[in-house]
Design a protein that fits this description.
Keywords: Signal. This protein is mainly α and about 425 residues long. The chain has helices at about 25-60, 60-80, 90-100, 150-155, 170-180, 210-230, 240-245, 245-280, 290-310, 325-330, 335-360, 365, 370-400, 410-415, and strands at about 5, 135-140, 140-145, 310, 320, 405. The protein has 14 helices and six strands. The strands form three sheets. The protein has a two-stranded antiparallel sheet with strand order 1-6. Strands 2-3 form a two-stranded antiparallel ribbon. The longest helix is centred in the N-terminal third of the chain and has 35 residues, at about 25-60. It starts with a strand and ends in a 7-residue tail after the last helix.
Length: about 425
């Protein structure tokens, strides 16, 4: 993925008089407070997810499986809004793969449909199925998987063989276990794993006790990983210290780097335009649950949060404080108004995408070949992200920050390479 020299800006519904513009140090303090609140909410909703999973395991009924799925969906909302903290914050980006890596080769974890295939040139563990196999060969080493533990997932299976698609931990591993494969392609429907896959007394899918072990281990690991990031963003935490050590200009550049990289290369490019070009349902972020529209929408909300210095918490941990938006307005009110227009246009485009999904057409259907109307809705969202990114280049210059390298994407920068 090549670097993309651009800047990103967002706009707010509330403007502050230039005379009342926030100090950069206060902007960075709010930025840290929002991170702490979001990761804290992510942790608490993960604990709620664990409680629902514990109930499913104790009583493996369809109702309890649906409740666990609902808890997973709720847990995704605050977490996805943290993604604007990636890229600019090394502590976050080095850690993020443990909790949100995708796409994954699910055959590493559990049984898959025959349509999945039996092997991959890129991945020797494509159908390793640790749930069915208490012993695995990984890079010439025999790995004892008799008991499925957090240590096994984290230390032996995650990115095993240095293959990024070997995702054994995090939200998407749990998602696959709760929903199973989505075998509908670009037709309607998500994964449909039965609750009896977790019922040793009435087991379907085989190896139910080991599947339960995996689900418990992955959920416990998610909680411990989120605890790590909550601590990092505490007032004396490592992430706050790393941010402070950059100085005010470096801190502001960090905010813009995260916003720009998520907006352009990551969301507009890798997560949206690529799948749209290929019309490939495997290129959707929450592909087992058909929750991709919400993940994308929450990324957009997260970008707005860090720019406007405001976070509306689902658990009441709201944050409002000094914002980057006020600094921009103090420098150039016309530019601030332009960014308001651009960011609001992006939000409107994603609200349209979200409404379409809630009306019955999932994201994987929207990107399907021949769905001209659905394709256009996704493309409009991509275009809005790219458009807001171009305006942010001016924000970087207006704030007199050093040149910032944002993540790029071949799907946007070199489309012909996608098909090579």
């Amino acid at each position: 993925m090549k670097s993309f020299k651009y800047g990103l800006l967002a706009a707010t519904a509330l403007f502050v008089s230039p005379a009342l513009a926030a100090a950069p140090a206060d902007v960075l303090s709010t930025y840290g407070d929002i991170a702490q609140a979001k990761y804290s909410d992510s942790l608490e909703t993960a604990k709620t997810l664990k409680a629902a999973i514990d109930k499913l395991i104790a009583e493996p009924t369809e109702a309890n499986l649906e409740a666990a799925r609902a808890a997973w969906l709720e847990s995704r909302n605050p977490y996805q809004q943290t993604e604007a903290y990636r890229f600019g914050n090394a502590i976050v980006d080095d850690w993020e793969g443990k909790v949100n890596a995708w796409p994954l080769d699910e055959g590493l974890i559990d049984y898959v449909d025959t349509s999945y295939g039996e092997e991959s040139e890129e991945n020797d563990l494509y159908t390793a199925n640790v749930i069915a196999n208490p012993s695995l060969e990984i890079a010439g080493e025999t790995v004892d998987a008799t008991e499925i533990t957090a240590s096994l997932l984290e230390d032996k299976l995650q990115e095993a063989g240095e293959v990024e698609a070997n995702v054994a931990t995090g939200y998407h591993a749990i998602e696959f276990l709760l929903w199973g494969q989505d075998l509908n392609g670009t037709d309607a429907g998500a994964g449909a794993r039965p609750a009896t896959d977790f019922d040793p007394a009435n087991c379907t899918g085989g190896n139910c006790e080991r599947r339960v072990q995996y689900l418990q281990a992955a959920t416990d690991l998610l909680i411990s990983d989120l605890e790590e990031m909550v601590a990092a963003w505490s007032p004396d935490g490592a992430a706050r210290k790393e941010l402070a050590d950059k100085g005010e200009e470096g801190g502001l550049a960090t905010i813009l780097t995260g916003m720009g990289s998520l907006s352009y290369g990551e969301l507009a490019g890798e997560r949206m335009k690529l799948g749209l070009m290929l019309h490939d349902p495997e290129e959707e972020h929450d592909c087992f649950s058909d929750n991709t529209h919400m993940s994308h929408y929450n990324d957009v909300i997260g970008i707005r949060n860090v720019y406007f210095g405001e976070y509306k918490s689902p658990l009441g941990n709201d944050v409002t404080g000094a914002s980057l938006a006020s600094l921009v307005e103090a420098k150039d009110a016309a530019l601030a108004e332009e960014m308001k227009t651009k960011l609001d246009a992006t939000l409107a485009a994603f609200e349209a995408l979200k409404a379409r999904a809630e009306g019955g057409e999932a994201y994987d259907q929207m990107i399907g070949e021949g769905n001209e109307e659905g394709n256009a809705v996704v493309q409009a969202a991509v275009d809005a992200l790219v458009d807001q990114t171009t305006t942010i280049e001016r924000v970087v210059k207006t704030l007199e920050l050093d040149d910032i390298a944002f993540e790029g994407s071949d799907s946007l920068d070199n489309p012909s390479a996608v098909f090579e």
